Amino acid sequence: MKQDLTLTVNGVSYTRAVEPRVNLGDFLRHDLGLTGTHFGCEHGICGACTVLVDGATLRSCLMFAVQAQGCEITTVEGLSDAQAPLHPIQQAFRDQHALQCGFCTPGMLLTVVELLDENPDPSEAEVRDAISGNICRCTGYQPIVDAALQAARTLKGGTR
Amino acid sequence: MAMADLDIHEPGDLAEAFCLLRAPDGAARPMGGGTALMLMMKAQLFKPSALVSLAKVDPRFHGVELSADGASFSIGAMTTFAELEHHADLCARLPVIAQTMVTLANPRVRNVATIGGNLAHADPHLDLPPVWASLDAEVSVIGPQGERRFPVIELFAGYYETTLQPGELIMRLHAPVQQGWRRRYVKVTTRSAHDWPAIGIAIGLKMQGARCEDLRLILSAATDRPTRLVAAEAVVRGQAITDDLLAAAGKAAASEVHIETDSRGSSDYKAHLLSVHLKRALHDLCE
To answer: Which positions ≥6 away from A140 have C-beta within 8 Å?
Structure first.
């Protein structure tokens, strides 16, 4: 039986009737058309589906949409407007060539958002630990680590 | 990947939760963070007809409190790992918890997984249950028949099995803060750094000069449930710590339990890991 779900995604409030078995990622992609959130493994290993729920990262493939009742979600679409400059973390990924195929990138970006919120000046080891739950098969990770460190410098400098 | 149809309830009180959990088909299950549960459902190992979220059943399932005399923490079952990890008072008094958290999954999982769900899941590879056991922690559980409290190590009955009675829910965990104990959780992985452990050893050690006054040794992952290494403890308790003594403790540990073979190592290999890592960790803690 469908349940009513009201939540905020990237600052916009939505109310939809959803089946309880639908996970948050499928809800974002199929019900709201926000396909920036990617599904790789669908069992919590790859990190591609990472989104922010009330500011904290979690795996949208392993959370039921109805559990997000009243929550504020941020997906990759919420990091910057289409016509606006990129978010500093996105810009750093671009500058450092931290993506090739781009499939892991939305999850990587949101993971780095949480990291830099909690720890504005991370060491390389702390960056590597933070992204340990996100798999990238293209870059070898080094450019992603470099991008996170660049973004930290940019954000600290206040040149958003 | 769609899952089978099911209902998700979020009852606002315990009576309603107990009622929902008594579903006629016997396939209603309580849910904490849902991390482990959803994995089992996606693997089609588990097909509940209804999930009963414990998020709003009772305020006693939430909050981290230090007793007035500072002797113990009381932790609500719905407390997430991240909440504990960022709890300054708890990390200062029980640093082994923060030390264990960083070995455990990643922030994205720790933001969701709950203390109570982690215990109720009773997967012997989990990292926190042996640590709670080494702290002599106790659980309070509540069910339709009332409330009871017992040592956390008595919760585990085997792979994914607990001693909880039908309808009973883990409500709080009580972790003593004992002065003068040195503690460590040793996670030994054999395939990659972020794998599940081949063995886990939670250690508490109280020294009096060069002599061991008391200790707790809890083995996990190699056994079907967190298991106290009684024989190895007896080798060390009351003795002056020497390399020979620690080697004897390692041998005693490896021979007193039935160690399971799995994809992370054979029984013999894990027994060897146990004897080496136990000796090494006790040696480090004595210094």
So the answer is: none
The predicted pLDDT at position A160 comes to 46
Rounded mean pLDDT of chain B? 94
- A22 to chain B nearest CA, in Å? 7
In a domain, A83, yes or no: no
Interchain CB contact of A129 with B (< 8 Å) = yes
Which residues of B are less than 8 Å from A41 in CB distance?
Answer: none
- Both A92 and A148 in one domain: the answer is yes
Could you tell me if B185 and B172 lie in one domain? no
pLDDT-based confidence at A41, cuts 50/70/90? very high
On whether ipTM exceeds 0.85, the answer is: yes
Q: In whole angstroms, give the CA distance from residue B121 to residue B156.
A: 10
Q: Which amino acid is at B284?
A: D
User: Considering chain A, what is the average pLDDT of its residues?
Assistant: 95
Q: A21 CB near a chain B CB, below 8 Å? A: yes
Nearest to B253 by CA among B282, B219, B214, B285: B219
Nearest CA to CA, how far is A141 from chain B (Å)?
16
